[in-house]
Task: inverse folding
């Protein structure tokens, strides 16, 4: 007689984590995927792999070049089986990206954090959009918040440690029926 084990959980729809640089999208996403036994992918990593260039190198060609590559990668990712996706900070800022996420049935979760938290996490790590200094980065954060709100189905506090956020989000996904 074959052993009957507990079936591993199955994510029923894709989950996209959005938010500004330093919000914890990649860290929370990895932890969440591990907790749920789901696949994780960082959209920036997908863009770099598809373009065979680093994100800073793509930005050096112009932000519009990077954004076009990002949209292509997002479309490819949304055609795959559900997983946990960490999107770039600017990804949900276009109507086109929000439409792609909606058409894919993606649950969009905004990891929101206050400016001091984000600034502390990002200062000195070489991100392309941080090179103009903290004042410019803060203006960008302020400008993007409306797009994050427009795209998000859920807003989650991204300030606590990533493991805490991931555990809480996993529980919320189970309770809401997004995990089989």
Result:
């Amino acid at each position: 007689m074959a052993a009957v084990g507990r079936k591993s959980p199955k994510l029923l729809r894709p989950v996209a984590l959005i938010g500004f640089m330093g919000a914890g999208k990649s860290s929370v996403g990895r932890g969440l995927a591990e907790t749920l036994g789901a696949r994780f992918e960082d959209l920036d990593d997908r863009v770099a792999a598809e373009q065979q260039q680093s994100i800073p190198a793509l930005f050096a060609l112009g932000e519009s070049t990077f954004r076009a590559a990002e949209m292509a990668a997002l479309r490819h990712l949304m055609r795959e089986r559900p997983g946990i996706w960490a999107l770039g900070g600017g990804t949900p800022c276009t109507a086109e990206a929000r439409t792609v996420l909606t058409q894919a049935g993606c649950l969009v979760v905004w990891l929101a954090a206050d400016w001091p938290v984000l600034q502390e996490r990002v200062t000195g790590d070489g991100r392309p959009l941080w090179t103009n200094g903290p004042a410019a980065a803060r203006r960008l954060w302020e400008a993007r918040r409306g797009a994050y709100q427009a795209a998000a189905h859920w807003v989650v506090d991204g300030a606590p440690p990533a493991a805490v956020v991931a555990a809480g989000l996993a529980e919320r996904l189970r309770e809401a029926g997004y995990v089989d």
The beta strands are 15-18, 40-42, 84-86, 107-112, 154-157. Confidence is low (pLDDT under 50) at residues 1-6. Residues 123 and 130 are 8 Å apart (CA to CA).
